[in-house]
Amino acid sequence: MGSMGLDDLLSAFAGVNMDDHEQLVGTFARVLGADADQSRFFLEASAWNLESAVGNFLDTVGTRANLATPSAEPASAFRGEESVQQVNAHVFAPGQPIQLVWTFVNVGPAPWPLDAALVHTEGDALGGNPEVSVGGCQPSVEAPVQLNLRAPASAGSYASAWRLRYSGGYFGDAIWLVVNVDGSLPPAAPPAAMQQPSHEQQMQQMQMMMMQQMQMSQQQQQMQTGFGQPQPQVGMAQPVDDEDMDL
After folding, report:
1. To which H or E segment does residue 177 belong?
2. Of 23, 9, 101, 105, which Cα lies nearest the Cα of 51?
3. Angle 230-236-237 (CA atoms, 0-180°, nearest 5)?
4. DSSP letters along 57-118, please?
5. Percent of the chain scored above 90 by pLDDT?
6. If DSSP states are collapsed to H, E and C, what string results for 7-35?
């Protein structure tokens, strides 16, 4: 691995959102081989000026000569087509479950970081988990990712953007999903945990509860009545005199 100059180091931050301090700290740590606390210290001390922070770090901690070239950035393609920005629009009933499997391919020379995940970045999250773990996909290997979403309850068109991310930032293109909700379609049933019982079911449940309460009350009364009854007296046998026997 060769040494890097200041310009080379700064070029390694290309594509990093300078307003995203957490992303900047993660990239600073990875590029310069520092830990997160060191990276945050130098960035904050330089008022988040990247060039100043890198220069101060080199002057204080190390030199340009002993900094190794950082590992390659992770790279991905959506279903093998890097130009794909948006999947085909779909039409769903209000509240209809949406299950998708998106396949990404590692087109880079190195495995993806273990913390790689597909995250929601813009638009409507469509009721899904905003972060789905992907893991360390090997080069030239596909990584299928399942999304469990749900169409909104109101009619309209909804867009949702998702992108791969790891601790050092985003990689690959953003993938857009467009969901069209047709209000003329019958709404889908809510999830089982959210379904409300019908009026008839509620009445049946109330009747069962009342019967159970009556049975418990009767049992308690029977137990109390049994405890209140006088118990039979058991006497001891008395000795009998011979004179009494003569009578």
Report:
1. strand 169-181
2. 9
3. 135
4. HHHHT--GGGPBPPPPPP-EEETTBTT--BPPPEEE-TT-EEEEEEEEEE-SSSPPPTT-EE
5. 17
6. HHHHHCCCCCCCCCHHHHHHHHHHHHCCC
Gap between the Cα atoms of 119 and 121, Å rounded: 6
β-strands 90-92, 169-181: how paired? parallel
The residue among 37, 212, 242 whose CA lies nearest residue 45 is 37
For residues 218-228, average pLDDT? 62
CA angle 24, 63, 28 (to 5 degrees): 10
Residue 27, exposed/middle/buried by CB under 10 A (0-12, 13-18, 19+)? buried
**Strand order across the beta sheet in which 76-78 lies:** 76-78, 97-106, 142-150
pLDDT in tens, 3-54: 456 676 777 787 788 888 888 888 888 777 777 888 888 888 888 998 888 8
Which segment of 27-41, 54-68, 171-185 scores lowest on mean pLDDT?
54-68
Strand order in the sheet with 131-133: 90-92, 169-181, 156-166, 117-123, 131-133
H helix and E strand count, the chain: 6, 8
CA dihedral 88→93→99→101, nearest 10 degrees, is 0
Give the residue carrying structure tokens 């467009």: 178
| C-beta separation of 151 from 181 below 8 A | yes
**Amino acid (1-letter code) at residue 93:** A
Phi first, then psi, for residue 6 (nearest 5°) are: -60, -40
